[in-house]
Structures are given as structure tokens and as C-alpha cells.
Amino acid sequence: MRVPLSWLREYVDLPAGETGRDVQAKLVAAGLEVETVEQLGAGLKGPLVVGQVLAIEELEGFKKPIRYCQVDVGRANGTGEPQNIVCGARNFRVGDKVVVVLPGAELPGGFAISARKTYGKVSEGMICSASELGMSDDHDGIIVLPPEHEAGSDAIELLELVDEVLDIAVTPDRGYCLSMRGIARETAIAYELPLRDPALLDVPAPNSHGYPVKVADPIGCDRFTARTVTGLDPEAHSPIWLQRRLQKAGMRPVSLAVDITNYVMLELGQPLHAYDRTRINGAIGVRRAEPGEKLTTLDGTQRVLDGEDLVITDESGPIGLAGVMGGANTEIADATADPGTGQVVGTTEVVIEAAHFAPVSVARTARRHKLSSEASRRFERGVDPQAASAAAQRTVDLLVLLAGGTAEVGVTEIIAPSAPHTITLPADHPDKVAGVRYGRETVVRRLQQIGCDVYGADDLTVTVPSWRPDLTDPNDLAEEVIRLEGYENLPSTLPLPPAGRGLTERQRLHRRVGRALAGAGYVEALNYPFIGEEVLDQFGLAADDPRRDVVRLVNPLSDAEPALRTTLLPGLLGALRRNHGRGEHDLALFETGLVFRATGDEPPAAVLPVDRRPTDEQIAALDAALPHQPRRAAAVLAGDREQAGWWGKGTPVSWADAVEAGRIVAREAGVELIVRQDQQDPWHPGRCAALLALVDGEEILVGNAGELHPRVTKALGLPERTCAMEIELDRLERAGTGRVEAPHVSTFPVATQDVALVVGASVPAAEVETALREGAGELLESLRLFDVFTGEQLGEGKKSLAYALRFRAPDRTLTAEEIAASRDAAVAVAADRTGATLRGA
């Protein structure tokens, strides 16, 4: 909404020195979004005067028509002699009054005017167009003024060229601010000044002599006012002040009748429509359209109507889209000269429509036909229904004043029964919402300022004004009090939430895992939980793999990734590929998050109500419709795990590093993993480990780790020998002790014993390690595999596994006999379970 400051002053007596910037600050403090303050006429310097064209000489021999004009500018040039001016415009003739800028003046944009020779003549100034004066973007021709203005008079004041215009972004809940009346009310409140309400007019009572109107849909149209004006002068034009106000507000002058309806709409916020009465067949009606009906609107487009469209009709059919745009067959006719008589003909009788239409109906019609208008913008945000009669009266008065018309005595007014909206509000409710004590007097005063009627003491009964349909509940009223008292006056206080119960065990495990992996050198990479099924093909997953049972989204962000992930690896490997492509070759990334595993047994999700809180049963039914969402952790590695340097060669990542990442995660849950060889896509079948944990004495699979299959790395564009680990945290939590104890630092010495066991080449080192742990008993503090050897000395199909065993007692120094006994017991159990023999024995 563009608000000229000069127009605003008609309704509010602002202080004389108050600028647009000052008003902007006040309105912003009151909660309005004033985006800019445009300075009209900035840089304009006179003399800029009215001139009368005395003579026109057509200059020949140029590429375009050029005219050499003599213009009377009175005594404005100091001599009284006519000014000689070269001009290329063709839309004026001898005797016309025009706008002339004389040498020494300066137009907006720093364009200085001087006498200069052009087209073989000396031009002593310039005849101006609207665009050259910054009035509009019209380049078609120069400004032709009405004949009553005296030559030599000041055109700057006449054309109101110097002004300030506030550009206000009106939010959807403040439709009343799409009018000068609404902005003036907010300004008056901000300055604590009285308001001259332009809607306070004497309106005649409705009678039976008005133009006949039939409203068949009182819900879509709850108020319809019709007035008739006859005897209009078809040659009457909009006065300059009216045109300038429309231009400053961002509208283009069209014709007097149309300009007046637009002016009243801007003034009062009530959209109006003027019909040429001679083009209306019978009574005006308001109804829903018949599906397939057609209407040609004022923009010249034929539209096929929908059964939900609210239309204005006569006996011939639809003549307008209610609240959106009128029809072309009843529009006001432009004044034209009759070819036979030369007499000017045009519309001389008009019917004024001022109605109130349902906001939802107008909004849907405008969107359905992709036809947004100034009227629809206001109706869909809420128009004051009580202003319809005043707007119609204001339009009639202006038509009588400016077009010489006569107002007929008939007044048609159809009103559907309705009651004002009332809200019960505790007087201290705004205090509780804001955390500030305003007091009853302040609350009542502020609500009365916005137009409410307030009654009561401790509990206030508030009747909302008709122009504020956005005020529907106590919180809306509290917001009005708070914004008018000033948001800047609200104290900055921190909320005091009740004490919580801390993190759940699941949340603690999630955080511990993230810290542990970050401490081990991994970098967290957060990815979107969306995948495309193409990546599952690249993983080489079998058709019956449960990871292919994805949950599809109805409205995915990308058509390439329309499903929710069933594994964390696609996102992590994509991040690894991007970083590798940008020059980072030694990478270790991790992520913790949810995956989504559909079982196929989920019931359809019900649509919950929005007017009340769902019941516990409805929430439970909605939860049952969700897929299973286990929490997982995953890590991917590529390049060197240890960098090369003067100390020696680097160590490339291997499947063992991926397995160790799984152990790091498991230790945070207090779980010792059981590692066995496995075959699982997308891992290499010979370098894939199954990560198992004991739950109630039973081994369960919690994850996999190892090196990715070469065809997978090739399909995904990954570095060779890329390794990955994925593990389910929820299963680890069930297998864990629930509490991770800090390591105990013993004061007694440790005893180290090394054993080298020869086993079959197919025996997993993890089985040997498990047997050694069980055999060594409680005195074993730790065990580490430090060497694997194969060779002719051992024989074909054999390998040697060398372990370092650390023994320590918590309460004493171990004797040599105790250490030897524990070691021998460990070897014996390993020999019994895996067939191991001591190397060299």
C-alpha cells in the first residue's frame, strides 16, 4: 500500500515539521512494515510553469516529425515574450495548456535545462511529459492540462510534484491497512491524535426505489448496496488532484467514473464497481456460476466458470466475477465523437455496486482463474462490511461533483442478518502474555483506540470493530495492546522452564558414540535422510533384501531421491565421494541417525483434526502407521589411516579399521563385540565381518564392517579399497550394561606373557581370542593380537597367531606361578576349542 503523506494529512493533523521518515518510525513501532519512504520531486528545481501553445511550425527533413512551438508562459520568463521550444510530441495542438520547464531549472535525476540549438532552432526550454517529471512511466506524449489554468502559474504546486510516499507491506491479517482510512487510524493512534474518519458520511436509508438486486447466495454475499447516478457528462475528465493521488498510490488514471471508484477504494478500503446502466438487462443478481458458463472479463479474456465461482449476473447471464473483476459487456464506455454529428457520446448513467463478499470465495476464484486484482487483494484479506454504504455514498457524491451527474433517490441495500463478534477477555490477560503490568485502564484505552467497545471490570466483554476480522480470540486482543504499548518496552527475560529429567539412555549413548568416533579421528557428516533406489542397485542388493523395502514420500524434495533411507551408507559414501573429488584423499567420516524400515503391516495414517487436540488413541494410531525407525551409527574410510613422513611409510585403511570403528562404538555401550567372517552386500565377500553381541545369552547381529566390493566402489565413483561400517545402536543398547564405568588404575604391577599359537588357516582369530579370554580367567587385564605369520615352517594350511596377554590382580602382586597357570589355562582352552598348538612346542 502506497500512502502519500499529503493525503494522510487530510485525516490526521500531523505536526508541521513531521517528515515521512518520522511517520515511518512511528508506524514501524506500531507493528507495520514500512519498507521505503519515496521522496517525490527530489532534485526538482523551477521554474516549471503552465504554458499555452500559441503556434506550431512543422520542421521538415528529419527522420522523425519535429515541431517548433511558440508557448506563452506569462511573466515566468521575466520578459512576457513567448518561449520558442522544439518538441517531438504530437498529442497537443494550438491553444492547449501544457507544462513547460524553463532554462535554469533542473528535472529529477539531475537533468539541467538550458537554451540550446537543436534541429536548426534554438529551444528555450522543454515541454514536459509525465515520465520526465517523475509522475508516471507514461512516455506516449506530453501533459495537456485543463484550459482553466492560467499561463505562467506554478506547475510544481499544481501537479503536486513534491511529496513523500510511504510504501507499506501489508501482512495478510491486516487487510484494513490496504486503505488510507486504515493507515490514518494507525497513524492517529501512534501520535495520540484524533482521526477524521472519511467513512463518517450521511447515508440515506434504503428504500424500494433503488435498482433491483437479487442475492441468491447470502453466505457468499452478505451485503450488497446499489446506487444510481444519471446525467453524467461524457466529456468530464478526472481533475489533476484526483489523477495525482491515484498515480502516487500506484494506480493509472483511466476515466472519471473508474478513477472515482478506484479513489474511494483507496480511501475507504471498499472495492466498488460501476456498471453502464444502459448495458444491464434487468435486475442484478448474485449467485454461484453454472459449470461451463463463460464470461469475458475487463482484461479481454474469456473465462470458463467453475461451479464454486460467485458471479454477478443480469438477465443475460454473468456480468462479473464477484470481488475479482467486472465483465466487459457492462463496462463504462469511453467518450468518443459520433462520426455523423460530431457530438461526444459515452456513458451517462451508472449503477454503483458496493458489496461484501466472502473472503475465501474471492480468494479461491482469483487463484482458480489466475486473476489477482486490487479488489480481490482486499476482499480476501477482509473488508469492512459496514463501510459499503459509505463507500457508495462517497462515490455518488464525487460523480455528482466532478461529472455533473444527478443522484437518484433510490437506494438498494441487501443485508444478511449477522451479529457483532464479541470476545471475553480477563483484564490482566495482556499482562500475563507480555510479562508486563499494563493495568486495566491501559488495556481498555488501547482496545478502544483500535475501535473496540469494551465493558466490564475484571472480565472485559470486547466487541470487535467490523474492520478487524482478524481479531478472533483473547490472544489477538492481547497482541494489540502489546504492539501499541511498544514491543521495544518489553523486558528481555530468559524463560524459566521446569527442571527436566535429563537425557534418556538412548540419547546418552548417541552422544557418547559421536564423541568417541570424533576422538578417534572421524569427522561427522550430516546427510539428508532421502535416497533414490538407483543407489540400492549400485550396492548390488538382492531383490528380496529388506533394505529395498523403502518408504516413499508423497512430496519429495527431489524426484531423484523420493524415498527414506534404509541404511546410512548412501549419504556417507556420497559425502566421501564429493570430498575426494575436491582433493581430500585421506578421509574418515561418520554419521549417527535414524533409518526407516517398513514392515508392510503399517495401517494407513489417519488425518488428524486441526480444531482440537487429538486424543491419545488418535496419536497412538498415527504412531502405528509410522515405519520402524532404528537408530544407527556408520563410518566410512578411504586413503591413508596414518600419513607417510620421515618416520616411515603411511598405513592405508583396511577392513580392520572399519571393524575397529565398530568396536569403538560398542565399547561406549559397554559391549564386547564378537567378530566373525560374513558375506553381506555391499561389502567384499572375503573382507566382510559380522559384528555380533550377546543379548540374554544369545548372539544377535548388530552390524557389519569391512572393505566395499570393487564393483560397488566403481559404480559409486569411490576410491579403491574404501571401507565402511554400520551398526545398530538400539541393539547395542539392549546388549550393553547400561552404564560405562571409568577404567580402574591399579597400583600393582602388570605381568606380560606372549603366546604364539598355530591354528588352521580358516580359523578366525576372533575365536582364538575368545577362547584365550575365557581360559585366562579374571586375572587377564587385556589381550592383543600383534602378529600373524604364515610360511613353510608351519606347513600348508597353517598360520601362527601371536598374542600379548597382560595379567594383573586388583589387590596384590601376582606370583610367577599364578601368571604361568593363567597362561597355560588360556592355551589349553584355545587348544581344546580351535585345535591350536604352541608354536615351537
Structure description:
With about 850 residues, the protein is of the alpha+beta class. Helix content is about 25%, strand content about 25%. It has 21 helices and 44 strands. Strand 37 (about 675) and strand 38 form a beta hairpin.
Query: What is the rounded Rg?
Result: 43 Å
Assembly context of the chains: single chain
Strand order of the largest sheet: 30-33-34-40-39-38-37
Strand count:
44
Q: Major beta sheet, specifics? A: 7 strands, mixed
Average per-residue pLDDT, rounded, comes to: 91
DSSP helix fraction: 25-40%
Globally, the shape reads elongated
| Low-confidence blocks of residues | none
Total helical segments: 21
| Relative strand content | 25-35%
Sheet/helix structural class: alpha+beta
What's the N-to-C terminus distance? 98 Å
